[in-house]
Specification:
This protein is mostly helical. It contains three helices and two strands, in the order αββαα. It has one domain. A hairpin with a 5-residue loop joins strand 1 and strand 2.
């Protein structure tokens, strides 16, 4: 329930960043979407590359 409230708030705060789905609908890019993408990228990084930073 709390996540739904956050998503609705994010939709209200929409500032133009969106992806277009296969049906041509604009889907606002949420903070949760960005975090998930970053986490996925971090998981895909080789261990040695993450140790260099």
């Amino acid at each position: 329930m709390e996540q739904q409230n956050k998503d609705k708030k994010t939709e209200k705060d929409f500032h133009g960043a969106a992806v277009i789905d296969q049906q041509g609908r604009e889907i606002p890019i949420t903070e949760a979407m960005v975090k998930k993408a970053c986490e996925k990228l971090e998981e895909e990084q080789p261990r040695s590359a993450s140790n260099k930073a």
